[in-house]
Design a protein that fits this description.
With 420 residues, the protein is an alpha/beta fold. The protein contains eleven helices and 14 strands. It has an eight-stranded mixed β-sheet with strand order 7-8-10-9-11-12-13-14, with helices on both faces. A six-stranded antiparallel beta barrel has the order 1-2-5-4-3-6.
Length: 420
């Protein structure tokens, strides 16, 4: 018996719609999965073409032609050197000042750009004594650098040992510690740039890894929570600092580190001990960031949004593979601006290619009573310090002196290791 033609057409159309919906769901889930999956391997992204006295020639990329101070990894990450001013540029080659070699040799060959400028741990990179700690958390021990206030390091941020470790206006009153939180896919080295100014201000500093970092413990699903879970690791480090003698905290974060710290400030009972937040290129609205990334990689924005809804859905999140539902609405701080209760310093470049500065601008406009906004140009994502270190450090120091200048009470003890 032959089926009616209309029934056949209807069945084919229904099947096609089902297949289309399944394909859309697959693409959306893949987009969301890429967002929450840690990147373990970072490929080389430039070539060292020529090396001369105090200069090096590199291939032109969007990063290598931007003014400022940066690092370059060589020899599959075993070598590292630092570059400064752009001396000349052609269509394919850029010549930059060679500032120093930290490891290995500078020879022609594949290399990888290092936005952090410094490489390694605080003692080797900055001349600041530090202790390697492991802070207990619900997912396991978190590797953490502790950099005590004062000490014998030079503290001037160039790692050459010629500084005196003191600021022009002196240290802040004792009792305040700083917690520094890196961004998505970054390492603790991202925080090295901020340590010299905090050290000059007399702040003991803790720089932790968090769950699903390359050197940190893994969550069961081995996926990022985009701040929705990682704030609990910051809480563990904050508790460690308070148990070690801190009276109050200042928290500093880059990119997703900003999203993590905003969740910590909103959700942790320890947030009452936080005096101020310093956020560099922060994610204050994940929808804006991920719409931008969808357009950047040719994914229809509505399909990308579908993937983000999957993160929050009890069943959809299983397709993505996260530990629990991730509701990005809770991390939209433009919408939640009225809930801010702490002073915030926002440093964000209008040329940020990864996290657009629009949400930071809107948050600053919504809460001028609490948010100090420092815009800039030319710097790519979280590279505001690199383009103008003096301006970045002056902004951070001025903000912290304004908001931390009062004495919080009895000073902190000598720190976890018992030494000054």
């Amino acid at each position: 018996m032959r089926a009616p033609r209309g029934a056949v057409v209807g069945a084919v159309s229904t099947a096609a719609l089902a297949l289309g919906a399944a394909a859309a769901t697959g693409v959306a889930a893949a987009f969301a999965r890429a967002v929450v999956t840690p990147t373990r391997h970072k490929p080389d992204d430039l070539e060292v073409l020529q090396v001369g006295p105090r200069r090096v020639v590199l291939t032109v990329t969007p990063d290598t032609v931007v003014p400022g101070r940066y690092g370059v990894w060589t020899e599959a990450g075993r070598g590292h050197f630092r570059v400064g001013d752009v001396l000349s540029v052609t269509a394919e080659r850029v010549t930059r000042e060679l500032l120093g070699v930290d490891a290995g040799r500078v020879v022609p060959g594949p290399a990888r750009w290092n936005q952090y400028f410094f490489a390694g741990a605080p003692a080797g990179a900055l001349g600041l004594p530090h202790e390697d700690l492991r802070v207990p958390s619900e997912v396991g021990d978190l590797p953490c650098w502790f950099v005590p206030a004062g000490g014998d390091g030079d503290g001037d941020g160039d790692g050459d040992g010629d500084g005196d470790g003191s600021g022009d206006a002196g240290a802040l009153p004792p009792g305040t510690w700083a917690l520094l939180v890196h961004g998505r896919g970054a390492t603790r080295e991202e925080a090295l740039r901020a340590l010299p100014v905090l050290h000059r201000l007399g702040l003991p500093c803790l720089v932790p890894a968090y769950r699903n970092d390359a050197d940190g413990p893994s969550s069961p699903a081995r996926r990022y929570g985009l701040g929705d879970t990682e704030w609990q690791d910051v809480e563990a480090v904050a508790r460690y600092a308070l148990d070690a003698g801190a009276r109050r905290l200042v928290v500093v974060g880059w990119s997703m580190g900003g999203a993590i710290l905003l969740q910590f400030a909103a959700r942790s009972p320890l947030a009452e001990r936080v005096a101020a937040l310093v956020l560099d290129g922060p994610v204050v609205d994940w929808y804006d960031v991920l719409d931008h990334q969808a357009r950047r990689y040719g994914v229809p924005v509505q399909l990308g949004r579908y993937g983000l809804r999957l993160l929050a859905h009890p069943l959809g999140r299983r397709l993505v593979g996260v530990d629990g539902p991730v509701d990005l609405r809770l991390m939209d701080w433009v919408r939640r601006a009225e809930e801010l209760v702490l002073p915030v310093l926002l440093l964000h470049s209008d040329d940020d290619d990864y996290v657009p500065s629009g949400p930071s601008q809107r948050l600053a406009a919504a809460r001028p009573d609490l948010v100090t906004y420092v815009p800039s140009e030319r710097a790519r994502h979280t590279k505001e310090w690199n383009v103008d270190p003096e301006r970045w450090e002056a902004a951070v120091e001025g903000f912290l002196r304004e908001h931390l200048g009062d004495d919080p009470g009895p000073g902190a003890g000598p720190g976890p290791g018992g030494g000054a």
